[in-house]
Amino acid sequence: MSTPALKEWPLWEVFVRSKQGLEHKHCGSLHASDAQHALQMARDVYTRRQEGVSIWVVPSATISASEPNDKGEFFEPASDKVYRHPTFYVIPDEVGHM
Amino acid sequence: MYTQSFSVSDQDDAKSTGQTASLVAVPKEASASEQALQAQFDARIDADGRVEPREWMPEAYRKTLVRQISQHAHSEIVGMLPEGNWISRAPSLKRKAILIAKVQDEGGHGLYLYSAAETLGTSRDQMLDALHTGKAKYSSIFNYPTLNWADVGVVGWLVDGAAIMNQIPLCRCSYGPYARAMVRVCKEESFHQRQGYEALLVMMQGTAEQKAMVQDAVNRWWWKCLAMFGPPDADSPNSAQGMRWGIKRISNDDLRQKFVDATVPQAKVLGVTLPDPDLKWNEERQAHDYGQIDWDEFWATVNGNGPCNKERLGARVKAWNDGAWVREAALAHAQKQQARQLKEAA
Fold first, then answer.
1. Integer Cα distance of B4 and B185 in angstroms
2. CA-nearest residue of chain B to A2?
3. Model's pTM, two decimal places?
4. Which superkingdom (chain A) (predicted)?
5. What is the percent of chain B with per-residue pLDDT over 90, rounded to a whole number?
6. Which of B54, B101, B330 sits opposite A33 (nearest CB)?
7. How far is CA B253 from the centre of its chain?
8. CB contact under 8 A, A7 and B123
9. What b/e string do you get for B250-263 counting C-beta neighbours within 10 Å, with b at 16 or more?
10. Is the minimum CB–CB distance between A37 and chain B shorter than 8 Å?
11. What is the ipTM of this complex?
């Protein structure tokens, strides 16, 4: 972000809330000189057909992501805990919906 | 909009590799860990899974995607030129507003695609440089002129129609960011084809001269649109690799056939003839037969000798150079604001 020799406008990730009550969802990225500029560009690039009521832009360089090649070990601990799911428990039919 | 992918190498690709990638992309001397990664990758592709940025992928898969997605992006951007040419001369305010919206969409499509390509580790400047220096290809269909208003309608109906045929299967491409960009593009592209067809329907209700203009435009664009799907399967050695990788889902010839079959009834409703004496329904195949495409002309255009190659590239380079001061000023402004904020905070 703060590299002085930068010739390209920095990259921003764009998140759009499609309507009130829904979460912002990642929809792509774009280049812009600063945050204000990125918001205007995001409006023009990603919401030309009323796809959004709110936009977040985040400098791509500030996102920390989990390592895709480690996803086995990283997410592994959850896979053997089937008792976290309701279907693990057998309830007599006569109880009905629970 | 875009097609002809996998059939056409960029100039530097052809020079540096000059060969078709083998089905197994890992060379024999690959380490055991690389082979394991390759096996994992193959298994995921075979299971119709998706590949996401930063995950391990064969280098040839990455290179192929960068080439295809950037060519696709360039095609969207260059594709703005033949239609943009008509914005100031559209026959009514309504048609003008529609055309502006369409051309703006094409620009948007280019931007979705450039950012999808950037997730593979190439930079925007690198891609633009390849386009501006003539190293990168774009769809050869944009190297033909739009001579009159009927051409704008035909570009929407046939050129975008052909592009939609090609782009719908790309929504299922194995590379996640490309597939997601294509979903967005396809949603918007449907309006492009419909507005073109509707504009032609209006002309066909007009004077004899207007009808003749539509027929003339169809005559000039039809064969070029068929060529947009790229060379026949037998002459597309890279297609098999693209299919294997789940990048390409339907072969050039199959897509072309679908396009012909879809277009014939549309032409009938419109009241125009498609300029091919060999075009007829084949009961046995349950599909239309059609005549020979002039591939020499296609390759001449791809290789830079079409009627508008120089003009299109010249317009792109000029726009880029003329905009340099805006890009620099915006960056200088942002840096100044940032410095001021830092100073205020201190």
1. 17
2. B335
3. 0.89
4. Bacteria
5. 85
6. B330
7. 17
8. no
9. bbbbebbbbbbeeb
10. yes
11. 0.84
